[in-house]
Amino acid sequence: MALNFGKSGLLTPQVPELEIVTKKYNDYRKNLLFLVGFTVVNIVLALVGADFYMLFSASVPYYSVFLALLFADKLPPEYYYDYETGETVYFEMPGANVFLAIAAVVAVVTLGLYVLMWALSKKSYVPLIVATVMFVFDTAGLLLIALIFGASSFILDFLLHVLVLVILGMSIYTGVKKKKLERAAAKAAELQEAREEDEKYFQDGVKGEKTALLRECEQPVTEGETADLTPEKSEDRE
Questions:
Q1: For residue 235, is it within any domain?
Q2: Number of domains into which the chain is organized
Q3: Report field, pTM of the whole predicted structure over 0.85
């Protein structure tokens, strides 16, 4: 980790950009789990007949179960009370239980796909694109529901859906940036490894030349080589 002098003049650690971007990316990914968690809470609230729900959630899974419970006459009596006549009127729809089963399957599959996209997005940002497309369709489903039951009561829902789409878009952008930094880091690591290998070969070559010279100097000198290295003997005195 590199060191850098901050504004205070103190020596502080400089966090690599890849580490910062990776942390942001993982934080953005967690929002998918929050989305699934709040949606599950909403479905449980619908099952117990609560008259409120969490906004930061997927609409299609929740309203599929809620409307199926409504048409199956499984919600509290106040949902079926007619204020004009003062009577409680149930739907008594044939095949309502089948519709409820289908709605449960839709909710489980949809939320399961969100969880799967969250898990797969650990290695790639592409699953986040799939999750974003899914939530776009979820927003379209919310629009359809709003047109049926009155758009004015779904304003906050739309605002939260827009917020979720912005968060998912930021997660994709951060994922692309993270991928580019990872490629740059991998390329830099390859260059560093190649540079270290070149230095190693160079050092081994120099060391090999020095070793050869030492071996040459340590070789025993023969008599002929000794005669060549010593001065010629003087003539015998008379």
A1: no
A2: 2
A3: no
